[in-house]
Amino acid sequence: MSTEQRPEVDRVLASLKDFQRATVELVHERLWGDDDPVKKFLVADEVGLGKTMVAKGVIARTVDHLWETDKRVDVVYLCSNSQIARQNLSRLNVVGGTELRHADRLTLLPKVIRDLRGRRINFVSFTPGTSFQVGSSAGKSEERVLLYWMLTAYWGRAATKSAPWRRFFEGWMSRNNFERALRAFDQDQLDEELCRSFGELVETSSGPDGGPLRAELQDCVHEFRWMRGQPSGELARRRDRLIGAMRGLVARASVHHLEPDLVILDEFQRFKDLLDTDDAGAQLAHAIFDHPDAKVLMLSATPYKMYTLPDDPESDDHYTDFTRTVRFLAGDDRARLVEDELRAMRESLLAGGDRARAREARDAVERELRRVMSRTERLSSTPDRDGMLAERCLDGVRLTADDVRAWRTFDGVARHIDHHDVLEYWRSTPYPLNLMERGTYQVRTKFQAAVERGDAEIATALASGAGLLDWEAVRRYEQIDPGNAKMRGLAADVLDRGAWRLAWIAPSLPYSELGGAYAEEDLRSFTKRLVFSAWTVVPKAVATVLSYGAERRAMNAVGDGSALARRAYDDRPITPPLQFRMTSGDSTRPAGMSTLALLYPSSALARLGDPLDIARSVGALPLAQEVVLECVRGRIADRLQSLPPGLDGAVVDQRWYWAAPLLLDAVDGDDGAIWHFLGSSGLDDDDTGSGLDAHLRLAESVDGLELGPRPADLVDVLARLALAGPGVCALRALSRVAGGARSLRHPEIRARAFDVAQGLRSLFNKPEIVAVLRAEEDERYWQAVLDHCFDGGLQAVLDEYAHVLVESEGLQDADKLSRAETLAETMVEALSTRAVPNTIEQVRVDGGRVLLDDSPRMRSHFAARYGRMQSDEKSAVRESTVRVAYNSPFRPFVLASTSVGQEGLDFHTYSHAIVHWNLPGNPVDLEQREGRVHRYKGHAVRKNVAADHGAVALTCIASDPWAGVFDSAARARAENGSDITPFWVYTRPDGAVIERYVPALPLSREQQRYRRLQRTVGAYRLVIGQPRQDDLLRYVGHSDEDTSWLRIDLTPAAVEIEPFDDAGSPATETIFDPMHDEPPYTPNPWGNEEEALLAAVLYNGGLLGINVREGRGATPAEHREIARRAGYLDARGVAGVRSEHRSGGRWVTVVGRRELEGSAQALGFSMPADLTW
C-alpha cells in the first residue's frame, strides 16, 4: 500500500471496540509518549480478541503522529505464514480501498523499493520464514528473474547477455517459459541505488565454497556454456548454492534500504528463534528491529509458554521462555528485577510468609511488565468466568467387538514388522493401513516393505480382513462402519442428525419460517465442527469417512427410478443439471432458459419479494411461509398487469417464467446496461461461455418476443423467484451492505450478484447436492432448487454472510462497488470449492499374498482436511480456499486439522463446536484451539444476539439488519460493561455456547489427562512467570482463601471515547411536513433507499398528523389516500406494525413513530414540533 492521503485517524479508531481502543492508546503512549517511551511493546490479548484491529489502530496513530515530520512513513508487517497475511492485510488498511498485498518474501522487495521512495505512506509485508531463512535454494522463478536483471543493471547488458547466464538462472523452469518471464519483467521498476548496493555486495562477498562470489559465479555459469538439457546433480546443487547466496545478498541490501518506523510482528511466538540467535537470518531480522527510527509492536496470545507440565522433560521451559521474552522487551536489568520480584512472591507463598510482601511483589511485577506489554481476557465477561464455554458429549462414542478385532489385526501386523506401539494410531483413526499414506508413518513404511518382499506372515495376520476398508462395498455405496469409536461418535453427531440433507447452515435470523430439513430443531441449531488431532492421518480419515457417509445417505435416499440410484461410487461425474444448454442440432439457439431465470438478478423482483420488507410491513419475525408467499403473490399479480397478457393459444408459453422478470425490469426503467456487465462475467466454469452468451443475447432481445398464454402458476413461480431465486437473493444481500436499496438497479452490483448466483449454480450442480434435492423433490430440478432456497431461508443466509464478510475482509471503509466486488469474489470462492480426491490404499489378501493398490480415491466435500494434503495435484484445493469455504455457511461442515500452525487463523464465523480428537499437552494449547471458534461476532454470539434482539430488524433504518441488531445488543449491555459483550461474549438461558467435545474412551488415559487439564485450565493464569508452576498450582488448589489476587493483571485502563462525528452525515435542517409539503421526489417503498425512506416518512407522518392534530384515527378513505401518497398501490400491504385500527380509526404505533424519526433523520429532514417523538 502506498498513498499520499493522511488517514482519518478518528474514523479508524471509531471502528475499534472500547477495549481495543484502550490498548491502542496505551501502546501509542508507551512507544511515542514523552514519559519513559520504549522501543518494543507486546500486545498479548487472549486468543480471538482482535489483536489485528489493535495493530490497525496503532498504525493509524503512528502515521498521524509522524505526519507533521514531512518524512515518509514505512510500516513493516511480518507474519508467520501467507495464510495469516491474506486474512489480515485488508483489515490493517488505514486509508480505505482494498489495495494491500502480501510481498511474500524480502528477496522480492527490490521490485517495489523504487516506488517506496516517493510515497508518503508505505506498507510492506512479508513472512520471516521465506525472507530471513534464505538458505541455499534457488528460490522462486520470479526471484531468479529479478536477480538476473539486477546483475545486468549493475554489470551492464554485455556481461550477462550470453545464453549460459540465462540457463544458469532458469533453474528447473522450461527455457521458453523463463525467456518469456525475462521479457515480461519491467526493468523500470528497479531502483538504481539498490542495484548498486547489491552489486557491490556481490563484488565483495565470499561464495559458498570460500572464494570470491563473483569468481565462483562466473566459473559455474561457464559450465552451462555447452550444456544441453538439465545440469547434473552436482552442478545443479552448486548453482542453487550460488543463487541462494545472491538471494541472501538481495535480502541484506533490501533491509538496508528499508526505513521502518513501525515494525509489526504478528504471531510473534512463531519466529522467536530470530531474537537471540546469531545466524544470517537473525542478523537480517535485527537489522529491521534495531533500525534507529523503528518502533516494534509484537502481537501474540501466547508470546511465551504459558504453562509446562511437571513431567515435561523441559518442565522449566515456561520460566526460561518468559524471562527471555521480558529480556527482549525490556532489557537485562529490568528483566532481572522482574525475576527477583517473582521469586519473592513465590517464596512468600510457599513458605507461609508475609502475604503483604507477596502482594507488594506482584504489584512490582505488574508495574514493570505494564511498561512493555498488555493483556486483555474475555473470561471476566461472564459471571462464572466460563466465557460461553460448555462441555458436550459425543453420545455415539462406543467401542465395538469389530474395533477390538481391528486392533488385534493391526497390532499383530505391527508386532511382526517390529513396530510395537500402535495403540494411539488405532485409537485415533479407522482403517489405518488404508488411510495412512505411503512414507508418512514408520509402521506404514515397514508394512509396505514387508508386503513387497512377500512376507507370508503379513498375509496371515490380515486374512480375517478385520480393520480393513472394503473398497468394493464403497463402490456399491454400501454402509461401511465408521471403524473407530471416535469416528462413530462424530458420525452419529453430524450424519445421524441429518446434516447431510443441508446445502448450508440455517440462518441465525430467518425472515420466514424455515421448511424441509431446515425446520428440524437439530438441524436448525446445527453448527460446523472443527476437529483438532495430534496425528496427520486423522484429518484425512475424518474428511473421507464423513464425506462418504453423507454422499452414501444422499444417494440411497434417491428413488429407485432415478439414474442416480444406479450409480457406482467411482463412476464418471454426473452431467450438471443446471446448464446453459443449446438446442440439439442448432448450436445458436438456447434449449431452455430456466437456469438463467434462477440466476438473473432482477431488480424488480428484488424490490417486490424482499422477505425482510414484508416482515417489517407485517410486524413479525419469522413469518409463516404461506403469509409471505401470499403477500408477494399479491404484489406480483398487481405488477404483471403492466405487461401484455400474451397472445391467445392452446398451449401455455413456458418462456414467461424467464421473460417476466426481464419485462418487469424494463417497465421499472432498466436501461439495459446490465447485459454488458453480465456478458463480461469473469467466472470460469465448464459450460459457461458460448452457451451463456447465447442465453444473454436472447434475454436482451426480450422486448421483441411475442409471448403466448401465461402459465397458470406464473404468479406463484415468480413469487418464489422473488423470495428465494439465487440471483435475486444475491442482489439484495450485496445491496444491503453496499449502498442500500438504491444499489438494486446498479448494473455493476447486479453483475456481481450474477457472479454469486453462478457460484450457487456450482453448488447445486455438485453430485452430492443434486442427490439431496432429487431425494426431496419429484419435479423439474430448477424448481427443486427454488424450493430448497425458500425452505432454507437463502435470503437470510446471504444477508448474514455478507454482514460477516464486510468486517472479516476489512471493507468497512471501502466504496460500495469495491465492497460488492470483494464480497462477491469471496462468496464465489466459498461456493466453488470442488471435491478433493484422497488416496486410499486397497489392501487385499489373495492366495497367501497381500496385494496393495493405491489407485482408488475417496472424495472429501462434506468434511475437509486443513493443512498438508497429498492428493492428485490437479484436484488439490489451496488451504486458503478451504478456509474461505469453511468460514462460509456452505460446505464443508466439518474441518479437521492438526493444531500445528493454526494460531491466528479464524474458523468461527459458522462454527462454535470444537472436537479435541486428541488432547493437547497443556491447558494453554486447549484454549488456543478453542480460540479458533470463539472470536468476534462468532456463530454462537450471532445466534444468541438474534434470539434476543432480532425484532430490531423490523424497525431499524439501517439497510443491513444485522447492524441494527448488534447495535441494539450493545445498547442493552450493563452500563459499565465493555464491548466484549455483545461482540465476543453474549449468553442467554439455553442459548448457543462454545461446545467442547472430548471423545475419550471410558477408563482411558485420555480421560485422566482431561481431568488434569480441567483442573489447570483456569488456574494456570495465577502462576504465569513462575518456575515449577505445578507446585504453586497445588498450593492454589489446597488453599481455602481467595487466591485470585495472585493473577498478574495487565489489562489496559479504560479510556474516555468521544463519539465519532462523521462530517458526511446528513444535516437535519430542513423542516418537512409530511401532511402538507410537496415531496422532493417520487416516493417508492420498493425503490432505492432514499425513495423507500421518503415513503416511510409520508405514511407514518401523514397518519400521525391526523392523530395528533385532530385527535382521532384516520378513516379508511384517509388511510388509503395517505398510503397512495406514500407510493403504495394498496393500503392493506402497508399497515402491519406501523399502525393499528382502534377507536374507530387508524392510529400510528410506537414502531411507526420511531420509523418516522429515523427515516426523517436519514433524509436530513426535521419534523414539525408537534410530530416529533
Write the layout of secondary structure elements.
Elements: E1 2-3, H1 9-14, H2 18-32, E2 40-43, H3 51-66, E3 73-78, H4 82-88, H5 110-117, E4 121-126, H6 128-131, H7 141-155, H8 157-160, H9 163-170, H10 175-184, H11 192-204, H12 213-223, H13 233-257, E5 262-266, H14 280-289, E6 295-299, H15 317-330, H16 332-350, H17 355-372, E7 373-374, E8 389-392, H18 401-416, H19 423-428, H20 432-435, H21 442-452, H22 456-462, H23 471-475, H24 485-494, H25 521-524, E9 528-533, H26 537-557, E10 582-583, E11 586-590, H27 594-599, H28 603-608, H29 611-618, H30 625-640, H31 656-667, H32 674-679, H33 690-700, H34 714-724, H35 726-737, H36 747-764, H37 767-776, H38 781-791, H39 794-808, H40 816-831, E12 836-839, E13 842-846, E14 849-853, E15 857-860, E16 863-866, H41 879-886, E17 894-898, E18 911-916, H42 923-931, H43 939-949, H44 961-971, H45 980-983, E19 994-997, H46 1005-1016, H47 1029-1038, E20 1070-1071, H48 1089-1109, H49 1116-1125, E21 1139-1142, E22 1145-1148, H50 1150-1163, E23 1165-1166
Please describe the structure with a list of short key phrases separated by commas or semicolons.
1173 residues, 47% helix, P-loop_NTPase, Helicase_ATP-bd, alpha/beta, 7-stranded mixed sheet, globular, 50 helices, 6-stranded parallel sheet, 8% strand, Helicase_C-like, ATP-binding, hydrolase
Mean pLDDT: 85
Report the end-to-end length measured between terminal Cα atoms: 47 Å
The Rg value, from CA coordinates, equals 33 Å
Structural class: alpha/beta
Taking the sheet with the most strands, its summary is: 7 strands, mixed
How many helices? The count is: 50
Domain Helicase ATP-binding: 12-327
GO molecular function, one term: helicase activity
Organism: Cellulosimicrobium sp. ES-005
Domain Helicase C-terminal: 856-937
